[in-house]
Amino acid sequence: MLGEYRISGRRAAEISASVEQGVGGGHLKPGQVLPPMRELAAELGVNPNTVASAYRNLRERGVIETAGRRGSRIRARPVSTARDSIRADVPAGVRNLSLGNPDTALLPSLRDALGYAAERADGRPRLYGQEAVDPDLARLARADLDAAGVPEGPVAVASGSLDAIERVLAVHLKPGDAVAVEDPGWGAMLDLVPALGLRAVPVVVDDEGPLPDEVERALAGGVRAVVVTARAQNPTGAAVSAGRAQKLREVFARHPSVLLVEDDHGHGIVELPVHPVVGERGRGEPWVFVRSVSKGYGPDLRVAVLTGDTETVDRVRGRQRLGPGWVSVLLQQAVVRLWETGAVDTAAVARSYGGRRDALIAALARRGVAAHGRSGMNVWVPVADETGVVARMLHAGWAVAPGARFRMGAGPGVRVTVSTLTREEAEVVAEVVAEAVGPGVGRRYE
Questions:
Q1: N or C end of the chain, less CB within 10 A?
Q2: How far is Cα 372 from Cα 358, in angstroms, rounded to an integer?
């Protein structure tokens, strides 16, 4: 059943660790069936309850899944294997359009901002027990959120969007709870949910965001939380329109106890306005709205602001105090300086990314290839054979990301990051994609 690999251990923690080591080392493959609990217990000389506890821990950690009488098996995408590992090695001389990074030429210099923060800290360094959120950051963030129509709520700070979302899910949900996630969607999110012991329920998206009927289906099925990307959805570039936001609000109004998490990581790089789905959440309804500075100001700043209902934000702050304590106020004050001085012309940056994205989509369309990218810095190209397309493009000198990193039930595709692509290069890439893909492929995500 397991080939040459032998599960070992006398305690539940040891047995589950042995299985995880087998998965991480590639000895236990996705879909591989594990021994029945009584059989493994007899082999290890332990009580069956010990093996049952080990299997339960593995299920909660997202390593295995149980299918009734068909037994327990390694998940198709165990959390021990991150989706980022699904990539082709990029040899020297190949142009890498697979990583999803911003154009460094459009990021601001941090010299003045960090110097400003350091100068403020001289003589009055941050100490234990002080406020975790810089008041100037909270003031500026709250004013910006108010202008965008995000409901009133306290402000907290996390180390990026994913950190914020993880903390929110962790304080609201328990292992085994279901979370609705976009499909195709952010690979890190698809890894995070099972890593927290939660169950991911895919929701189909189109260019305007999650489909309301899909969200309704997931909510009727008992999901406890839904994560929605406001703009620059990764990998499709979807952006929630005003009409879609209203329809989604109507859906959520019928399920007031469900946690709604909205991620606006594209803030500062997108021309389209934000239409917050959280816009009509009332008192007692759990919600969070997250904004990160990573794409517009630099991933290494590790600052994201979040607001939400008071109870949720208080839980996040309380749990944060027991871990890192706070996000460096030096970094928070650097962001304040960047915002106050207008160090980034966000409109110009958004136009630049939009122009590059539109140039590639138009070039592909002229060659009969359908592609998606309403906002942000990525273009999603549905294909019939993503492994073959990735390999052929790599051979032609261009690296793109395989769609397997971003999907659960959605059809295959490839993601092209356009952040550093010139308009002239867009024509070259489109020609290579067309040759690798063939015309008329992938008119729908699903």
A1: N
A2: 10
